[in-house]
Amino acid sequence: AATVNVAEQRGHALLARGHALLARSLPDQAARCYDEAYGLLGETAAGMRARDLAHTALLAACAAAPSDADALAGLTLREREVAELAGQGLKTRDIAERLVVSPRTVDVHLTRIYSKLGVNTRAALAR
Asked: Which of 45, 82, 113, 115 is the most buried (most CB within 10 A)?
């Protein structure tokens, strides 16, 4: 009876998943799959290929990721002010008082900021 190396099979499955993620323009996720595949396949030919693919995918992810400066450039001056204060943990009412606007105006700014930056919480904004 033939033995099946489950770790090796999982490693090859992760390679395939990495290829699919890369094809969907998700290099950061692909890199994680390739890295995990390398961990399972080790110093075999497939393992070395996985390591190389992980490195290439990470480089692609870094090149594709917008920098914080690029993301902030899309905000208006007032949105940047609101984002900075919200990121510091201030509540809507406190931000409104500081900027001399209504709490509703702060909420509208936050909605636009979240949309532009692709986040949906103040905690994510702080990062």
From this structure: 82
